[in-house]
Amino acid sequence: MQVLLDNLGTFGRGAWGTVVLFAWSAVGSLVLGTLLACLRVAPSAAMRAAGTAYVNLVRNTPLTLVMFFSVLALPQLQIRFGDSLNTQFRVFAVLALVAYTSCFVCEAIRSGINTVPVGQAEAARAIGLPFGQVLTLVVLPQAFRAVVPPMGNIFIALVKNTSVASAFSNYELISAMRNLIEQNGNAVISILVGITAAYVLLVAVVALAFNRLERAVGVPA
Amino acid sequence: MSSVLYDAPGPRARLRNRVYTALGILLVLVVLGAVVWRLDFAGQLARSKWDPFIYQDIQTALLRAWWATVRVALVAVALSLALGTVLAVLRLSTVRALRWITTGLVEFLRAPPVLLMMFWFLYASRGAIPVFWCAVLGLTLYNGAIISEILRAGVLAVPKGQREAAFALGLTSGQVMRMVLLPQAVRSMLPSIVAQVVVVLKDSALAYIIGYTELLRWGTNLGTEFFNLVPASIVIAVVYIGTNMVIAGLAKLLERRLSTTAPRARAAAAPRTPAQVGGGAL
User: What ipTM did this prediction achieve?
Assistant: First the structure.
């Protein structure tokens, strides 16, 4: 364990990288996932088809490949963000995580919309709300409450998925681990244990937060 | 679903929907057009970048790389089915200590990223374990835990009378599990299990990161050789999506064929769709 205490800086920098990747991707995929869900239940067939096509395409592509495309192909298409190389790679990784995770967010919200009693939407229409307002004022708020548990699972998976970014020039827990192992070949096991513990801790925090959230706003079964 | 959100459209709504449809198609076309324009602008649509894919030896190499990916996934699926069954049985055991230990183990295995699990084997063995097996074992540990959860849900969803009747016949608890409960659980959970195969296949791409030569590695090698990284990654994406869609279609087919025979087990199992059991479907 001495290795970890001696290299708390590296370790902390890695953990911070993971948290930053997670936070931006969580916000982004929540937004994009909700938009996709709206597309998938839209009254126009073309919008539904567009949403379905996106979800099916991206969901069936490995995250590694999505990120590969984002990090290596986007610069070739002369799409760039920010000046510093570090920011650049971080943005690419977040874009990939958002593109990938929002498919699962979309599917969760869509199944949440199905749990909203039909009477709710009928009553909303009866008082004269148009589709957009039925969705945003009546159905979606209730759907969100119903999907807290699956959303928790999606965000737990997101914490773990940030590890893929290590292979694409992002500094996070896995990169910190590889750094530490290169420098301390004699303490491999304790480094592995430490990094694993960090992930378990992060996952536990997210799980706990979603448990609290479910108790606060969740729909009782 | 549509009935929740809107009534049958009247003439004005139909007109509006048609406008939305036109706008939607326009939007998709604009996005697609922008992508194609960007690709063309960057010179990625040039013949020379796509020509390599018509050479026969490159196609055979692609097939071989595909097989390298599928091989990891297949071995990992077989091993995780075995591990998953063992864990599920232990977790449903009558011995409390065994139950506790297995519960802890399954919960623990679901927490770290699969990539980290692959690194466990790679680094802890100091490279003594070949990367192929590091990838397989990492995938097995995680997906074994997920499959054990799926099977456990399936066993718990088998009607109580089955177990009671089997005990009444004088079977031992091991026999009840092996001959009565597990077969029904596997049957009712087959769609979820097949869906998990898609997850394994997708996660096998992580083997690229620990240095195993599979589809993605083959693509980067080809891309650096012919300067066509973008076309190569598009081809790989098509291969992955195609393979996954075939498996996903298979899962749907299985579900439809089994749906008439096991409605109760499926209903009980429904809240635990694969996406939820582990969040692992990601």
Answer: 0.89
